[in-house]
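hiii, so i know i said id send this last week but things got crazy w the move. better late than never?? heres the sequnce for the chain we talked about at the cafe, plus the structure i predicted for it. fair warning i was half asleep when i ran it
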Amino acid sequence: VPRSINVVVPVHMRGGVILPNESVGNNIGAFVTRCPGEMKCDGAVGGGGTTPCPPSERLRRVHESLLYSKRSPAPFVSHHMAKFCSEYIPEEWAKSIFQRANANACVVVSNTRGYDKKLHIRGMTVESVAGFLPLPPGIPVGVVVQSYAGTMSLTLTAEKWAVPDADKFLSWVVDEYQRLRVEASQLEKKQNRRSC
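okay and structure toks below
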């Protein structure tokens, strides 16, 4: 596992808000950030070492790496650059520009918060939804984390050479989530004992 990886994160320009009588349109920008890959700790949380860091420490480090880029003007710059390129530059040039602009990212990760309750279309209940992330030029893996009607789901879009076994890849994500849940549960029990 590399020490860090570059990740592309799409951002809705209005925070996902769509005003009445407004089309969804293409109001998406993005930023690239370097996220920690393999993380080791020894003794004090956050130190270097040989022991894998606990899930909460890995989550904290990834969160910190995303925070700065998320607050930067990068999503707005990328949105306007993409709009300009798609309207005024030949397609082959635009594709080349986008490949260079991805900063050697190897994955796009998007989160979509869905409705808390099931929707209905013409009287029919929408039982589930599936996210889809078309791969940008030069990026071989896309992951969508989404919620709908109280259920969280993951969707993977990937080049076969990058992810030969999608089920195995997604099982690693679920395993990490389960480790985080166990650690959070243990922490909650400790806090409850202290308050008694």
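btw Strands lie at 4-12, 28-36, 40-41, 51-52, 107-113, 120-121, 124-125, 141-148, 151-158. thought thatd interest u
miss u guys!!
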